[in-house]
Write a structure and sequence with these properties.
Shape: globular
Number of helices: 22
Distance between the termini: 55 Å
Order of helices and strands: HHHHHHHHHHHHHHHHHHHHHH
Structural class: mainly alpha
Radius of gyration: 24 Å
Strand content: under 5%
Number of domains: 3
Largest sheet: none
Number of strands: 0
Helix content: over 70%
């Protein structure tokens, strides 16, 4: 029954569907593989636009990549790649520890030294090893832990935070390590949480540290959101032979190219639309008047005509999509180069014809985090007698509660200092954003279930896509990273409707 519930939930959410000198060298190699140095028997007609866009799937490109890097690809078996990635994860863990300790020192006023940095690194490594031991012996854990491993995992974080709040350990070694752990834990909790999902499925037997350490401290970087999720997802898309590895690496090179295109378009938007100083502004000039940024309009919305405010609103949505695509494609590019042919983080969200489709395409791995940790458990356990209430409760758990909780954990400095006023100031606008997002996703899911499964005509598709753009542009008012208050954002929104 639980498996059937989760299968239905995946259909509802769309879950599971869907740069540097080294990067330049890889891109050049991919170009030669796709377009040059072909043997006479491999030469044929010029590549079509479709083949050019999907060069990573072309047999000619794959064959030349194999001929060029064949011995290396054969040596890089899955076990060796994991071993190399785990060795790199040790370096990533050290950098992560030092970085969080420096942030903690700047926030609460102490100067970290090598001893505190070493102790923090050992503490975090011990935490990961303890969680790995618990996952490998999952069947021996108490029933309450086996039933709610994620709650128990997050409870450890809140116990540590409560200790810091009550004891105020100061700037000694204990205080420094405690604060550093609080800064670092949000990065680890979701990744270790994915490992606990693997343990719940009974797949942890005979697994060592190298099978999991490489995605807990990934060398490809990322944010608190785990790009590539966890063991189950990564191994499902892991290259098992040199041909599959070649395809994955060529797909990674394509991600680097797409990241460069997104970054270039973003620079054009910054210079020629927003009028921010860069080389494109100096070369081509900017719109007259330049489109203002949302932060400037929040402080004085009456100074700008309504039409310009609407243009700025849509431009900010485009900016957000390009920024996420530019960074996410680089991360996924490296993941694919290491042999995991996973989905892109951002995949054509501006072509989405429904709110739920945009949500699935815009920030895929954040959406997957919310779905796996909040949507599925709620959908599988509650309101089975009322389908609509069941779906609404699951969407609310993910898009509202999970979204708020995730961003609450990211407020590291106010959390450490127990500054509840700063927490409320930082989260009050997102609270309203998450409420609007929840309602939009739920209504969109209901409409998609009722809609006939036929392709819309082009005018209807344009209208549907424009409606999605408008919805996300408007709710982005309350998601924009700016110090403006909730009511300043409301004032700006009312100004869009002519109430000034």
């Amino acid at each position: 029954m639980l498996a059937a519930d989760c299968k239905r939930a995946r259909r509802l959410t769309g879950s599971g569907s869907h740069l540097g000198s080294a990067r330049i060298g890889l891109t050049s190699l991919a170009y030669r593989a796709a377009f040059h140095n072909l043997r006479p028997d491999e030469q044929g007609e010029a590549l079509s636009w479709h083949e050019l866009r999907h060069f990573h799937k072309e047999p000619k490109a794959i064959a030349i990549w194999l001929r060029t890097l064949g011995p290396v690809l054969r040596w890089l078996t899955p076990s060796r790649r994991r071993l190399l990635l785990s060795a790199g994860a040790l370096i990533a863990a050290v950098k992560h520890s030092v970085g969080n300790l420096n942030r903690a020192g700047g926030a609460v006023g102490f100067a970290p030294d090598w001893m505190s940095s070493s102790l923090l690194g050992l503490t975090l490594l011990s935490f990961v090893l303890l969680c790995l031991f618990a996952a490998r012996n999952f069947a021996s854990l108490p029933a309450s832990v086996r039933l709610h491993p994620q709650i128990c995992l997050h409870a450890l974080f809140w116990l540590l935070l409560a200790f810091v709040w009550m004891r105020r350990p100061g700037h000694g070694v204990l205080g420094v390590v405690s604060i550093g752990c609080i800064m670092a834990m949000p990065f680890l909790l979701w990744r270790v949480g994915y490992m606990m999902f693997t343990a719940q499925r009974g797949r942890m037997a005979d697994m060592g540290l190298r099978d999991h350490f490489f995605y807990i401290f990934p060398v490809w970087g990322g944010s608190d959101t785990p790009y590539g999720k966890g063991f189950d997802y990564l191994t499902a898309y892991e290259a098992r032979d040199e041909t599959a590895l070649a395809k994955s690496q060529l797909a990674g090179v394509k991600c680097f190219l797409l990241a460069g295109m997104a970054a270039l378009t973003k620079a054009f938007l910054a210079g020629c639309v927003f009028g921010e100083g860069n080389v494109l502004l100096r070369s081509f000039g900017a719109l007259s008047p330049p489109v203002p940024r949302l932060g400037a309009m929040f402080s004085n919305p009456g100074a700008y005509p309504v039409w310009l405010c609407w243009i700025a609103l849509y431009a900010e949505l485009l900016w957000a999509v390009l920024a996420l695509a530019a960074s996410g494609h680089v991360i996924i590019g490296w993941v694919r180069l290491f042999g995991f042919h996973v989905f892109r983080n951002t995949y054509k969200p501006l072509l989405a014809e429904s709110v739920v489709e945009f949500w699935n395409r815009y920030y895929y791995y954040f959406k997957e985090l919310l779905v796996n940790f909040f949507f599925y458990p709620t959908f599988a356990r509650h309101f089975k007698g009322s389908p609509r209430l069941r779906i609404f409760a699951a969407v609310f758990a993910a898009a509202f509660f999970g979204n708020m909780y995730y961003h609450w954990l990211r407020l590291d400095v106010p959390l450490v200092t127990a500054d509840f006023a700063a927490m409320w100031a930082a989260l009050q606008s997102r609270l309203f954003y998450c409420l609007l997002l929840t309602l939009g996703i739920y209504i969109s899911m209901q409409r998609e279930q009722r809609r006939a499964k036929t392709r819309r005509r082009f005018p209807h598709r344009v209208l549907a896509t424009g409606g999605v753009w408008t919805f996300f542009s408007i709710i982005h008012i309350w998601a924009e990273k700016d110090s403006a208050s909730f009511f300043a954002r409301v004032h700006f929104f009312l100004g869009l409707l002519g109430f000034r």
